[in-house]
Structure formats: structure tokens, C-alpha cells
């Protein structure tokens, strides 16, 4: 925290005694107490993002974009447990083609880095009060959330943000309890890559997400299902338990009033390999159940998803394999797992491809990471395969794959360079693409 230190000036008084022509030494004053004044904290992140995608197959095109932006915020000093913060977000796109983005559109520019209509914009994305008393914390207002089924999904230039009230308590040993109510959402730039439809609805964005773009906050029901779907919002309860050595258990329940109830469970554990204790093993399980509630504004909802992941780490090398399965949704009109508010917890998702939530779909993924510690570089490669069921609402019967890489160079504590690539096959299902991203993040 940035503090301004002020030293109080001290006046020195001395008596001069003359004895035998000598001047008596001046007595040194004791140091004055320093007073520290806390004026709060200024913080933020600068993000410059370049993306280049080349389509092949039924679509033949190259589009690329360069933008800069990020956020800057101010947080007040604490007063009796109370703080407040306001954070300004914004994006500015560079015209790197012969016409600007709003004229050229998606034929030349990538929509996932801008506002709707390729617009630049700036807005107050966070503005909240936070109160902490002993083991309880209350946060009310515009804020960032990172929960399994409602989250920031910060994969492009600007994240999703929410209007919510969140209470967290840790009175019970090794246990975190969370209760919250979310009323509105502002959709980040990633949402603009999707057409409105089932692909968006099961990939983290709803049928009405465009109502919450360009810095606007829209009702959670409208984000999910479109204009006029005003609801009482989404109420969430959660418990996270870490009282067993090397084990974390968590349970989340999201009640989207008059739309659906979503239950999310996850268990993570780690242990030493029995053959070599220098090999650190880990395993995770996850489960989602969704069902319609109240007025069932999304129609019938009846979906189950489960996933499992097994990993190992030896020195600087780590790897994992994951598998997931989504049940047949038994005629539900939207099918699969509905994720309209940005949460994307699946172990098997690709960098871009998120077909694992489609009805009656089997997915597997393998990934490996090496930490070049002397260079401050982490390098990851992965491969995912999606076998989409015949009852899916998007591309039923589709078999698609995605491979890719992710290289992160931490140049300094605050400066990070990131180079990513993804290469889906039969995404459309009649087109593929090669995509590269270069991201520079500077945190302060």
C-alpha cells in the first residue's frame, strides 16, 4: 500500500554557557515520531492484445486485430473494516487495415477484442463497498466474480463483470461459506465472437448477451434468454472444505429464478506416487446437474455432466489427462449444460472449442507443461477431442478436435508476455482455422 510518510519538524533549543572561553555542546534532540498517512491504493492492469485467425474450408478468410486497454482503479484506506473501490475499464482498437474496424467488420477484424459493433468504449466496471468483521466479509456493488458457473471468463481484452452482493465467512475451521445474489452482468469482449444461439448458450454466453455489451449492465435473465426476460437474478450458495490433508471439496448451488437450478460439485486431491515419491500425483472430479425451476423461461432443462482429471508432476514437468461426458438432455429445447454467465469450469474445454457441454457428448483432453525456471518461462501443449451426440442443438453428430499451445514469459514481477495458438478441425463443422495470440500484461 502506498503511504506518504511525514516527519514532524522538531525545534532544537540550546543554552550556551560560557566557561573559561569554551562553548558547551548542544544537546541532541530525541527523534520525532513519524506519522503515517494512508491515502489508499491505485492499481490496475495494462493489456495489449494481438490476434490473428486464418479460416480454411467452407470459410476462407484471415482476420486480425490489435487493441490496447485494461483497467485502473482506486481503493480507499480501511476505516473500521470498511473500504470502497472504483475501477475504470476500457479498450481502444488500432486501425491496422485500410478501413477501420466498424466499417470492415468481421471480414478483416476479430470481434472478440472490441465492444459490440467493433466499438471502443470505457466504463465503470467495478464500484463496490467491502466490509470485513472478524471472519466475515461482505462485498456489495459492481465487482468481478470467478465462480464455476458465473465468472469473468477473462480470455480476451475485457472480462465479464457483475452487480452482486457476496458474503464470505470462515468461522468454521477449514471451511469457507459463501452466499451471494447476482442481479446484473456486463459481458466482456470475448462474448462478441459468438452468434446468438445454442453455441453461445453452452459456451459461456446467453441468448441476450448483446444487451450487456459496451459497458452496459443487463438483467441476468435478459443476458441468459434475451430482451424482456426480467427475473429476480441468480442466488448462489457455496461451501469449500480443506480439512483433509491434500484434499479440497467444494459444492455450489445456483438458483436462477424462473430459469434453472444448477448444482456444481468438485473434489481435488494430491498424493505422492507409490513408485517414486518425487512424482506428485493429483486427481479431480467434477459434476453438474441442471433442472428447470419456477416459470421455466428457458423451457425444459434436464442435464447432467461429469468430468475427471488425473495428473502428475515431476520436477519442472507436469501433465494430465481428462475425460468428460454430458448426458442426453431428454428433449430439452436448449439441450446440454446451459452456461449463460461466463462460468467455464470444465476440465476438458479447449482454448476456443467448448463443445463438451453439448447434449450427449464425450470429450477427452491431454496436456503437458514444462517450467523453464531459469528463463521464467512456462510452456504448455494440449490436444482435445469432442464427440458430439446426435441430440445436440449445435452440429449434432460432429467430431471435432483442437490442439494448441500456451507460452508465458514472466519478464518481471509486473510484466508478462504470453504467446498462444489454437488449431481446431471441423469446428463448424465444415471449416477449420489457425489462430495465434500475443498478449502483453503489465500489472501495477
UniProtKB/TrEMBL annotation:
Transmembrane segments: none
Annotated Pfam families: OprD (PF03573)
InterPro entries the UniProt entry points to: OM_porin_bac, Porin_dom_sf
Keywords, ordered alphabetically: Signal, Transport
Signal peptide: 1-19
Record-stated family: Belongs to the outer membrane porin (Opr) (TC 1.B.25) family.
Protein name as catalogued: OprD family outer membrane porin
Organism from which the protein derives: Sulfurovum zhangzhouensis
Amino acid at each position: 500500500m502506498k503511504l506518504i510518510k511525514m516527519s514532524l519538524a522538531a525545534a532544537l533549543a540550546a543554552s550556551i554557557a560560557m566557561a573559561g572561553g569554551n562553548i558547551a555542546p548542544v544537546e541532541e534532540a530525541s527523534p520525532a515520531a513519524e506519522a503515517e498517512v494512508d491515502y489508499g491504493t491505485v492499481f490496475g492492469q495494462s493489456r495489449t492484445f494481438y490476434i490473428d485467425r486464418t479460416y480454411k474450408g467452407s470459410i476462407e478468410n484471415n482476420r486480425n486485430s490489435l487493441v490496447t486497454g485494461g483497467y485502473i482503479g482506486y481503493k480507499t484506506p480501511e476505516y473500521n473494516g470498511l473500504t470502497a473501490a472504483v475501477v475504470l475499464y476500457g479498450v481502444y482498437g488500432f486501425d491496422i487495415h485500410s478501413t477501420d474496424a466498424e466499417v470492415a467488420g468481421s471480414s478483416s477484424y476479430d470481434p472478440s477484442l472490441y465492444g459490440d459493433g467493433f466499438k471502443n468504449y470505457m466504463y465503470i466496471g467495478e464500484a463496490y463497498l467491502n466490509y470485513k468483521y472478524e471472519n466475515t466479509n461482505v462485498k456489495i456493488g459492481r465487482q468481478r466474480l470467478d465462480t464455476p458457473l458465473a465468472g469473468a471468463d477473462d480470455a480476451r481484452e475485457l472480462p465479464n463483470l457483475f452487480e452482486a452482493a457476496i458474503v464470505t465467512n470462515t468461522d468454521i475451521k477449514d471451511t469457507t461459506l459463501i452466499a451471494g445474489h447476482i442481479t446484473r452482468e456486463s459481458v466482456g469482449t470475448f462474448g462478441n465472437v459468438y452468434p446468438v444461439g445454442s453455441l453461445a448458450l453452452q459456451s459461456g454466453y446467453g441468448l441476450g448477451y448483446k444487451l450487456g455489451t459496451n459497458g452496459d449492465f443487463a438483467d441476468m435473465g435478459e443476458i441468459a434468454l434475451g430482451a424482456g426476460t426480467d427475473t429476480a437474478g441468480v442466488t448462489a450458495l457455496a461451501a469449500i472444505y480443506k480439512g483433509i490433508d491434500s484434499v479440497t471439496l467444494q459444492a455450489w448451488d445456483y438458483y436462477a429464478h424462473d430459469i434453472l437450478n444448477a448444482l456444481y460439485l468438485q473434489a481435488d486431491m494430491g498424493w505422492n506416487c507409490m513408485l517414486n515419491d518425487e512424482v506428485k500425483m493429483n486427481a479431480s472430479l467434477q459434476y453438474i446437474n441442471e433442472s428447470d425451476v419456477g416459470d421455466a423461461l428457458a423451457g425444459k432443462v434436464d442435464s447432467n455432466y461429469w468430468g475427471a482429471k488425473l495428473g502428475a508432476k515431476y520436477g519442472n514437468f507436469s501433465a494430465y489427462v481428462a475425460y468428460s461426458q454430458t448426458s442426453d438432455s431428454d428433449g430439452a429445447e436448449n439441450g446440454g449444460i446451459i452456461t449463460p454467465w461466463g462460468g467455464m469450469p470444465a476440465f476438458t474445454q479447449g482454448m476456443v472449442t467448448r463443445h463438451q457441454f453439448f447434449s450427449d457428448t464425450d470429450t477427452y483432453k491431454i496436456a503437458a507443461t514444462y517450467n523453464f525456471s531459469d528463463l521464467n518461462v512456462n510452456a504448455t501443449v494440449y490436444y482435445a477431442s469432442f464427440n458430439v451426440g446426435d441430440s445436440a442443438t449445435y452440429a449434432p453428430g460432429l467430431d471435432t478436435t483442437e490442439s494448441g499451445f500456451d507460452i508465458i514469459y514472466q519478464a518481471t514481477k509486473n510484466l508478462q508476455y504470453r504467446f498462444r495458438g489454437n488449431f481446431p478441425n471441423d469446428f463448424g463443422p465444415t471449416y477449420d482455422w489457425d489462430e495465434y495470440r500475443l498478449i502483453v500484461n503489465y500489472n501495477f
